[in-house]
Write a structure and sequence with these properties.
The chain is α/β, with parallel strands linked by helices. 50% of the residues lie in helices and 18% in strands. The strands form three sheets. It has a six-stranded mixed beta sheet, sandwiched between helices. A six-stranded parallel beta sheet has the order 10-9-14-13-11-12, sandwiched between helices. β1, α1 and β2 form a beta-alpha-beta unit. α1 crosses α5 and α9 packs parallel to α17. The longest helix has 24 residues.
């Protein structure tokens, strides 16, 4: 969930205001929200930023805009329009700039919360003691999160004790881009009926997924979501389709390292992906068969030395997620994605189902016909077991 704290500042002395709102945003970021500041200031206080770097306040991203007028209205409109559809804009203050900002937000259909009683500004006059203010901001932050969720609807759904994001395809790319903007490390994983079945008896895997932005994959999850929540997910975000979409649409140029599958397949995948996505650079690759911890540590050092921004790990569930959770930080990469069979698909080792089969979320049938011995138990028995678990989960 992305929260933009907009602070229209009408006076030259505003450090106390910025610190108060910044404390709220920082507390919300510690809770897992993507909170940031939008400061609308008098023209003389808006300094140029020729480097293009993202400004931060104690780890909180900050945007600055000149005070609202005809000259800056276009810039403000572009800023608001660029915010993801799942954003909440919370306006702190009650001056003419705040009024115009609220109107612009509503013009672009951005949810707006404008309540001075739920702003740290209300605490400034009450106390100058840091301890009380920090405690009050903690309470206020948790109260606001409940309000945000009611305004937006729940940002995730719990299926078999795994929290799965409800983002659309475009929103998921926006979330990833924002993490790349500020240099925050993000793990991304995909779960389907089979992987949720694994999570019910594999506690380390289930706990590892808590460190991931988890996206939904397949018809089984849509059925489970309809049973429990009465509605399906917005998009089918399987890794084989989503990762190429991400590489095609992200605003970042990425240095990518590939880990997984066989030596031959990963080499072919690297070559084909370089041709398909020339904006990005494949900085290295290796197979997914490690001989031990020393081999893993050496690979992490190699990835770190390559200055990779993104590591695509295709080792299958749950190995790839466990590997990312345990070793991902050592690679130095900002984005690590568990991609399953993507590298085999890219290399042409495994063929994709026709488009019409993929559109109805039935690629699993095509895969079953290709490899009946290996996949019969997973799909025929596993899918029936999953639906039974989904019904019990909904009843609980």
């Amino acid at each position: 969930m992305r929260i933009v704290h907009a602070v229209p500042i009408s006076s030259g002395s505003h450090q106390e205001l910025v610190e108060a709102i910044g404390q709220l945003a920082r507390h919300q970021r510690s809770m897992g929200l993507h909170a940031e500041l939008l400061l609308i200031e008098r023209q003389e206080h808006v300094t140029a930023n020729p480097s293009g770097r993202i400004e931060t306040w104690n780890g909180v991203p900050v945007q600055r805009l000149p005070a609202i007028g005809l000259a800056s209205l276009t810039r403000l409109s572009r800023t608001i329009a660029g915010m993801s559809a799942a954003s909440i804009v919370q306006i702190h203050g009650n001056n003419s700039a705040a009024t115009v900002l609220a109107l612009v937000c509503r013009l672009f259909r951005k949810p707006v919360l404008h309540s001075n009683s739920l702003s740290p500004l209300s605490l400034i006059q009450e106390t100058s003691q840091g301890t009380k203010a920090t405690a009050d901001i903690g309470v206020m932050s948790r109260t606001l999160v409940g309000i945000y969720q009611r305004m937006l609807g729940s940002p995730s759904r719990q299926l078999l004790n795994v929290s799965i994001s409800t983002l659309s395809r475009g929103q998921a790319v926006s979330v990833i881009d924002r993490h790349l903007d500020v240099g925050e490390r993000l793990n991304v994983g995909f779960v389907n009926a089979h992987s949720l079945n694994i999570s019910t008896h594999n506690t380390p895997y289930r706990e590892a997924l808590e460190q991931f932005l988890v996206l939904n994959d397949g018809l089984g999850l849509n059925l489970a979501s309809r049973i429990k929540y009465g509605k399906a997910f917005r998009d089918n975000l399987n890794g084989t389709d989503f990762v190429p979409y991400l590489l095609s649409t992200t605003r970042h140029r990425l240095r990518i390292y590939l880990v997984g599958t066989s030596d031959h397949a990963v080499q072919v995948a690297a070559r084909k992906m370089s041709l398909r996505f020339p904006r990005h650079i494949i900085v290295g690759y290796r197979n997914g068969f490690f001989t031990g911890l020393d081999d893993i540590e050496a690979t992490c050092r190699t990835i770190s030395a390559s200055k990779a921004d993104c590591v695509l790990v295709g080792m299958g569930n749950p190995l790839q997620e466990l590997w990312i959770a345990e070793h991902g930080a050592k690679t130095g990469a900002r984005l690590l994605i568990g991609v399953g069979a993507l590298l085999d698909f890219q290399a042409g080792v495994v063929s994709r189902a026709p488009d019409w089969i993929r559109r109805i979320h039935c690629e699993w049938i095509y895969r079953l016909l290709q490899e009946p011995r290996r996949l019969a138990r997973r799909y025929l028995i596993g899918n029936a077991v999953f639906l039974g678990r989904a019904v019990r989960d909904a009843r609980r």
